[in-house]
User: Fold these one by one.
Assistant:
Number 1:
Amino acid sequence: MSHQQSNRGRGRADTDENDAGQQTVDGRVRRLASSIAPGLSSTFKTDAMSGSTPIRNENEDTDFHGLRSQIFTIYPRSSAFICVLFTKQGRWEMTPPQLSIVIVSWNVRELLLRCLQALPAAVEDLSYEVIVVDNASEDGTVAAVQSSFPEVKVKVNQRNLFYAAAANQGLALANGSYILLMNPDMLPHPHSIARLFRYAEAHPRAGLLGPRIFDARGQDDWRTGREYPTPWSEFVDWSGLAHLFSFMPFLLKNRRLAYDRDQSSAVPLLSGACLLFPPQLPASLRQFDSGFLMYGEDIDLCRRIDRARLQKILVSDARMTHIGGASSKQQPVITALLAVVAMNRYFHQWDGRLTAWLHRALMGLISLTKTVVFCTGSVIHAQWRKRCRTYRRILNWAILGAARNVILG
């Protein structure tokens, strides 16, 4: 059998498994409807053409809204399939979920499963669907999700499209009025997503919202709520000055360390680790620029939100923990280069060629210095070899500018 035929066969198998999982949820809802409102189940049949389910209104006193509430109480993880309302015409109608949760994964099975497990407590009673876009994982992610969470929609890519393109796929598939895009290594705290959602509903001027994010040590992640990066801030971070001279506030101005994260407020920049897209956001702002393969797409989006004169809000009582670097640690050399190239693209696009040139020159200086240090030291310290390769790649890019060739080489 050819490789192409094998892929088609696997695709059909994946579809069959998803259909089977959906039918399981379908059956549960039918049985629940029958137990709560006897007489309804006999005509509880899906009309595939209209997206509705005709029923006989045999009991005028049936509490249909109560039935919907009980369905979500018993099956809180179920997706748009069970978003049902009884209308005056006597029909069960499919309604979009209030929220779509989109997660992009690549070889992070256990962290993804933990994230999915935490969703019901974080979402509370909101109706929602979950869409996982998998970038050709090789650790059994797809099978594990389909087995443990059959109601989750899984989009399987045959190759790694990188983050921005895969996120765009998930955003395009979302049916919810609000869309939450989050990393698989996020751990949403109980009530966090519901609080984020309710804040967004109460503040229609918000164009983009994000939670208060903590790192694995329980400390605030400065990447959300910070100022926009500059060539100088990038130099401070990559050179190590931020770590060595953390007691000097002027070096860390970009991080806004004095910002009070106990209060929900508008901020310059939100982290792409978790973003809520409200319905009033134009369609053009519900997609990333896929030219930012893996980094910088959130910064570019925030700049476009600014241009549309919409606010970006950090919601303080919506709290989540971000493990961070779960995917990037698997390919540290390439991901480091991708991060540098993405920032240079951002500077070129938003601040002009001169700013991009300054950033490239500063990164060249850092990488030259660190290439000498780590490549020389790797003779004695074997663990420095990976750093040697990393900064040598960045130096090649800074000199030649052929990012694609440097990445692939």
Number 2:
Amino acid sequence: MVITPQEFISTLPLLIVGLTTIIVMLSIAWRRDHLTSVILTIFGFCLSLLSLFFISNDFPKSVTALIRVDNYAVFYSTLVLISGIATSIFAFHWLEEFQDNKEEFYLLLTISVTGGILLSMADHMASMFIGIELVSLPLFGLVSYTVEHQHSIGAGIQYMLLSAVSSSFLLFGIALLYAESGNMSFSAVGSSFSDNHMHAPLILIGLGMLIVCFGFKLSLFPFQLWTPDVYQNAPAPVCAFLASASKISIFAVLMRIFIETSIGRNNAVLSLITVMAVASIFFGNLMAITQKNVKRLLSYSSISHMGYLLITLVALRIDPIRSQMTVAIYLASYLLASLGTFGIISIISSPCCSNDQGNFNIFRGLFWHKPVLAIVLTVMMLSLAGIPITLGFIGKFYVIFSAINAELWWLTGAIIVGSAIALFYYLHFITSLYSHDTKHTDNFFRKEQAKCSTIVSVVCAIIVILIGIWPQPLITIASTVLVNF
């Protein structure tokens, strides 16, 4: 096997982030310095992001059987890197008050970003599994990074155990698919599935096991039990990464599998996906209504958002181009809203405070103390709710349009009803920001404000509004980031 210079250049984003991981590790071994670690991490991510523009010609390109570099991979790699950069900035200010070792946070983060990029480029079951594990394993440490807090340790153990179980399902499912097809490449697996062959027992069981794994990673009903506890007890910057890059990269590879293997033609799979989508939408939104903790609210909200995205997989058989565009637009809006929201939570919360869970009382009256943070948080919540003039509205519009175009009337109704329910709890939280009950707010602000984190959150809010008003640039980009099928 010979890798040409062009193929080597195509993998530069992945190689640069991998090299960044090694450099950060060596810098920690040589001399511990928090500022040095975060600068090296952000510089590596920015360099990887820059390299994406130099490989944008001569697509698509397969680099061995494991990796395929195309516009689709470049787009989702970009989203993962943006999430990594923002998370590094949020973490720097959040960790300033952390009394234990800070530098390993960035080492774990770079490993997880490497896995996210690999997932965006994966074209083989083996690279998909490696990518999922590279994303998931560092999150065990990141979720429980504040080891002095019992709840944080408990969340990390819970995530680790359930993630290990889901990975075992994934491996067994891959083995069953390989036993039937004799190949683990996405396209080869798809070409070996004839219409009759798709209903073979081993195929159905293997696909079911893959769906179990993806259901856990994406917090889909009924595999979502870990989500609220992990979101509540994990550090706020980790939640930003977990809610954005982790789910974006995993959904990207799931979409590629559906397209290249044609499993979306299987009625049994579509029926299962449909039930999971509807259940996720209603369970997530109904449970979010009762929450008094913003991080738990966002965790249940994420369940419903992944349910909306599942509908695009059902519509994929009717209109694959429109469905892919919908996923790209929706995930871009979800990325910005998640980063902006958890960025504000990171600014307000502190690792030294045992109550880093984001209780509503912390945010009550925020506008009267920090109006910029309150306004940004308002914009993000409105975007998540899908209110017009925000990017979230454009994403929700495309999901509904895809469902209508595929004549999925019941699913269209589920989207509308779910969005109406979501509007209630988003507005309920927004009203608490402007309440005059301000007795709790001052206790949760540090003397030195995280200016860089504030800037990142404000930029996210501005982009959400600008693209919400003029979405054509994002729509144009989304129309070019399609998997060739």
Number 3:
Amino acid sequence: MLFVHASLLALHPGPDADAVSAWIRINTPVEVLEEDGERVRVRLLDRPPEHPVEGWVAGAFLDTEALTAADARLAREKSGDPDERQAWLERALAIDPTDPWHERLLKREIEQNGGTWVEPAGTELAMCAGGRVEYLGLLTEDRFEDRHVWDGTRRQLLDLSARTWLRVEGDHLVPIQGSPFVTPFATETWNEEGANAYTPGTCDAICEVEKKVILGPCETEGTLYVSRPVEPMPATPVGDDVVVAPVMAAPVGAQSRQLGHFVETMAWDRVRIVWGVEGTFGLNLTVGGVHYADSLQAPQHEAVWFERPGGDRYVAVVPQYFEDRLTGWVVVELGRATMRSTPVTLAGWGC
């Protein structure tokens, strides 16, 4: 068993092919099947045997031991070559994107080498549903963009395989190790049959032209996945079946509580969040004399809150159900002067 030591390693369909089948992430374990010059044919070892991924990679980027972020930082310090120093920082960032110094040092290294640091377009969001991670869209500097519908190009799927992903667990982030999302795919949005976390399903009844994007497998239902570090804000239980919106961190002004269907309110400037344990989720915001309001039907203990990179916006991903079937999510954005909700409808069943 060998491990990938590149921040991203191209997987090719043949020993001489330029085309890229997928991107393999750092520390992915592989088995070497054969060699042909500078390239070797490998099989990924973090896949079930019934869903193998094989291809050709540059053998120079494989090693017998997994790499740590500390190893990468040390190798960078020992190197006198500017390009090598930059490459080691890229590896450190790929292994542990939660350390803010990795990105800061990499940005400085790139600029010292005469390059230009390119800020990511935003933060990709995805959620675990039914044992697989469903892609939702992109949280940009301005707003959330619903992109769960496949754009019909292989480029979108290939780009998603190259992303760094982190899993939100309570109040912290867990970087995803290896390449569990090496082969994202598009599948049916309506009457999907025979699908799993690795292959698309089919539709034999009423079908839609649009398809949704699946990244790969997951274990815990309702887990949020992000492509850049965010500040998780777990909800706080304050009593039996009562959950308080996490933006209570710095309330200003009066607070009130109403027992029963509506359970808690808070004030932030003139913002009020109302959590209904098994019913309505209300948002009320008044800024500069302009009133914003929205109401969602959802079990709010399943919502996931976080603070957007840059600290200018609170975001919640709220599950939506029809009877017992998950039908999608609503992405709620709460800023100091705006409130916005964007529905992401993922699936359908029936006539």
